[in-house]
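Hey all, quick one. A colleague (J.T.) asked me to put the sulfoquinovose-uridine-C1,5'-diphosphate job into the tracker so the inputs and the structure tokens live in one place instead of scattered across chat threads. No bug as far as I know, just bookkeeping. Sequence used:
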Amino acid sequence: MKILVLGGDGYLGWPTAMHLAERGHEVTVVDNYLRRNLARATRSEALMPTPNLHERAEIHQAHGGRPIDVVIGDCTDYRMMAALFERIRPACVVHYAEQPSAPYSMIGYDEARTTLHNNLTATFNVIWAVLEHAPSCHVVKLGTMGEYGTPNIDIEEGWIEIEHKGRKDRFLFPRAAGSLYHTTKVLDTDLLWFYVRTFGLSVTDLMQGPVYGLSTPACDRDPRLAPNFHYDDIFGTVVNRFLVQAVAGVPLTVYGKGGQTRGYLNLLDTLQCVTLAAEKPAAPGELRIFNQFTETFTVQELAERVRDAGAAVGLDVKIDHVENPRKEAEDHYYNPVHKGLVELGLTPHPMTREVLVDMLERVLRHRDRIDERKIHPRVRWR
Ligand code: USQ
């Protein structure tokens, strides 16, 4: 298939592009380096430096990887997007091209506006580029489990049937996001749903939990092919942050009570899920929603797992409870359904002690590059 990976320079975008190319697809990555620039502007650079996209594609090919086409462009620019879709006429577009950080979106007006504008406009442009230039193209959109919040009922896979005054209907599951970033994903879903039901688009919305990991078969061929691994308070996700904190000897920063439960997945499983969705598309006129995670843990449990894995590599890991910079429930019910991707063929890679030890060993190789000033929360939800 011809596949466009929008946001192909990102933590997930780049490993996805290599993986899809390895499976024989004709992959074009698109990125305008927004995340790199925002990370530089907020002093949140990744642990290992990563070459630019053209260089990454060349290195990937030099190691025998199938070619990946690179387009440096801004998905909020409709002329660029229209020309791209007209030229390539993709069968599938994987849309990661969003400002991905909840804390970044909560810094202030400018950052909130950048997030709202970038995320909504990019999604709107994907929809219109498909409608006008590739109407049968399947859209694989990265959403987030954070769209649902933490309701006091089981979270269904995207949809819920409601009986009201003796009548029944099926609705999008209620959303209650906890940051402006997560709210843009709610708005994305609504936008897609409108165009699906009105114009018959084919869309898969993947409601993903926090991802961890820094290794995939293609990334491991050369250190320069590694994903951009963030451990700062703005772009780093919690598991990756805890691993770096363990290596740096900084007590793990559990926010508040640590009873916040989320659904996590290994980077390898993100690749599986996105590939399964791309290769087994939604039907025309279908908004198919999957909850994309493999296991749920509280933040406290995560910290304890990292502490135990640390002991196996000689690290004396301490756990701290810092004041929660976010507004979120710290002790709540959480039971989301996650069957759809398993039914499609997902084989989960659970977070075993071996997996954590392997990641710690990889982070240990870059110990000298850890900048402790990036670890403690700098952004508060107020
Ligand atoms: N947390 C800590 N200590 C830390 C960092 C985070 O206790 O040092 C807590 C947070 O308060 C939160 C949980 O860990 O309760 C997850 O935080 P996170 O920073 O790993 O994840 P989040 O900000 O929600 O966002 C990340 C990705 C985002 C994706 C989302 C999935 O950055 O793109 O959409 O995970 S989810 O969390 O399910 O919404």
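Adding what we noticed when we looked at it: The CA atoms of residues 18 and 227 lie 11 Å apart. The mean pLDDT is 98.
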